[in-house]
Amino acid sequence: MNTFLRSIDVRKHRRALNESALIAKAFIKSFNWLFPSRCIQCDCILTDMEEAFCDTCYIGLPFVENCCARCGQSMPGDFHCCGQCLNKPPNYDNCFCAFEYANPIDDLIVQCKYNQRPDLIERLALSFVTELKANEIPMPDILIPVPMHISRLRQRGFNQSLLLVKAISQRIGVPYSTSIVYKRKNTKPQAGLTLKQRQLNLNDSFEFHSKDQLRHVAIVDDVFTTGATAREITKILKRNGVDYVQVWGLAHTF
Ligand SMILES: [Zn+2]
Ligand SMILES: [Zn+2]
Asked: 88's torsion region: left (phi>0), alpha (psi -120 to 50) or beta?
């Protein structure tokens, strides 16, 4: 094909691309008009600047105001490290949870898990990222969702930590991996167990698979209760050469 014909071909191709982009834009606009985004708490229609929650609901969320930078536990005042961590810190290096496990975050997480509403966790991830950026949390090299055993996954149909990780990863541009840490043992449910019992229950239940040298990793879960799972995963990550482990949670109960 001569140069003249090729340039006509390129122009035609570009015009077709522009036209399809315009059609897609018009489709999204009409879709938004027909099905506008609504606040996940009060159901009002959101403006273009609002995500997941309307501004009124957002400011009323149970933010973690001041917490221990090491374990993430809420603390009064301007201290950076709690007494417990001064004595015996957890094996992970840093913990960031955006919200207390309180109204309406607790209810939304429960709805997601037990009413089969995975969309809710994806939208809560947007608020998590807003808080992550506002608190200038350092970015890891990779995100790891808390893995779920295959039989548990079949029961629920989805892993809420993975949904959360996917949405966060897309927003902050940090990759995630579901293969680095694998849950090989189907452990008993953790509810009602103490930290010590949880640690015993989880002992050797995870496996590590990676040939890459990982330096900085963030373990992500929807709710952190005692941190037993995060400690068990951190143990296996550090044993395999990871230098710095962060724990990221949508909410914590401590
Ligand atoms: Zn609202
Ligand atoms: Zn602490």
From this structure: beta
